[in-house]
Amino acid sequence: MSVPKDLVRENPGIGEWNVIHAYRGSIAHGMYIPNNDPLSIDDKDTIGICVPDKEYYLGLKTFHSQGTQEIKRDEWDIVVYEMKKGISLLKQGNPNVLSLLWVSPKNYIHITETGKRLVENRNLFVGKHVYRSFTGYAYSQLHRMENFTFQGYMGSKRKKIVEQFGYDTKNAAHLIRLLRMGIEFLTDGELYVERQDAPQLLDIKRGLWTLEQVKDESDRLFKLSEESFVRSSLPVKPDYEAINKLCVELVESTLVQYAWKEIQ
């Protein structure tokens, strides 16, 4: 399983400008169901951060839509952020972007020295503020679980699964996973991306839990999330100045590397 070479060649955000690129979603969580399985509705999701050329920082060029590029082809669903945008999302506690810094080493597709420095400084983004992000994303999954939208590569297949089980089992699995990850993060200050509870989450995803079981567990976890937030010893919010300094250093050092390559 690897990103098609022509996509990498045609998109410098996952090619020459990329500093960190990893699998996210079901692959990173250990919950991927191969597309030859009748119950598979999984994309191959990846996420990355890049540092474009100096014209994007010193001139008027912008990296795609507000610093974000989405690349979709068949089952591949790739999101790339320009460094400033990526760090801004990390600072906000975005669960999907935070996972980039805590994935299992085997799930990094590409990582440079700049990317490694970002991972080494991941504790800068740890704080109680993540409570709102994780519970917010969880509420979104709860809403989508029963208010169906069938879009994208697996839209028609997903519709059949909802008709079979009476609710969106993939959203249900995401709901439970997000709440558990948020509770763990508030407690330990660590994001456990590769899930030890993957077998149980896969059971949910395969429709082996009733809708009532999912709702009961989510109710319990929402309450536990609030309690974990109150008890958490993490900083209330990240150190903005330290994060800003890191962003400057990472962009600046990468641009220097580009300049050095040009003169060699």
Considering the chains and any ligands shown, give keywords for the structure.
264 residues, alpha+beta, Beta Polymerase, domain 2, 2 domains, five-stranded mixed beta sheet, globular
SSE blueprint and pairings:
Elements: H1 5-10, E1 18-23, H2 25-29, E2 44-50, H3 55-58, E3 68-73, E4 76-82, H4 83-92, H5 95-98, E5 108-111, H6 113-120, H7 130-146, H8 155-165, H9 169-188, H10 198-205, H11 211-231, H12 240-263
Parallel strand pairs: 2-4
Antiparallel strand pairs: 1-2, 1-5, 3-4
Helix pairs in contact: 4-12, 7-9, 9-10, 9-11
Fold and architecture overview:
With 264 residues, the chain is of the alpha+beta class. It folds into two domains: 5-122 and 240-263, Beta Polymerase, domain 2 (2-Layer Sandwich), CATH 3.30.460; 130-231. Helix content is 52%, strand content 11%. Helix 9 runs parallel beside helix 11. The longest helix is centred in the last third of the chain and has 24 residues, at 240-263.
Summarize the structure.
This protein is of the alpha+beta class and 264 residues long.
